[in-house]
Amino acid sequence: MSLPAQIPLDLGHRTAMGCEDFLVASSNADAVAWLDRWPSWPAPALTLFGPAGCGKTHLSQVWRARSHAVITRGELLDSGVVPALLEPANAVVVEDADAVSGRPEREEALFHLYNLAREQHGHLLLLSRKAPSRWRTRLADLRSRIKGAPAVEVRPPDDALLAAVLVKLFADRQLRPGLEVITYLLARMERSLDFARRLVAALDHASLAAHRGVTVPLAREVLSELQRTEPQRSGSKTTR
């Protein structure tokens, strides 16, 4: 793998929670555009779908900062708590929304939540690994409503986005590794924004403990240890 002498950092920036910045790239630009349209969505719900680590949760934090939404999870949905979810801000983030599929009580709860949001002019942001068309929803009315609402794919980060994220995460910790370190990590790390955060945190800790800068040898040691201790996921690579 080769990178340009200057890693492009002209990606769009979005302030998220705390001091983090959200980087806008081709993999998430459509999702960002839809979140920008809120509250003028054509339906009460919007589904963001994509693999673990692609940035769905971070995007939901961006939206939550604007909408003050309550956060819940698909496996926790219950019809008895639905009205309370909409009371604070009339907006709800449902993580792992596809977890309701095949569970009649959860499907009923999400159906109730959708209808109540529509009646109250509220909104739901549904996060899922799978597109709604692939949910195994048994409740026909719920299936119809979810499929009729917009759904946007968030793709795994490409090299340009991962490089920009790594540079920014290092800069947040006052670290300035050389281009060779970024190149080394990109060729071997898991293609995940979550993994990038854990990797940079581990490198920062190792650098402080060893009183040494972030170099390729240190990156090799830390990356190897992370890959050894964490379950291997799709998109991860072997350290060499």
Automatic annotation (TrEMBL):
GO terms for cellular component: plasma membrane. GO terms for biological process: DNA replication initiation. One of its GO terms (molecular function) is DNA replication origin binding. It holds the Pfam family Hda_lid. Residues 172-223 form the Hda lid domain. It comes from the Bacteria. This is Hda lid domain-containing protein. It comes from Azospirillum lipoferum (strain 4B).
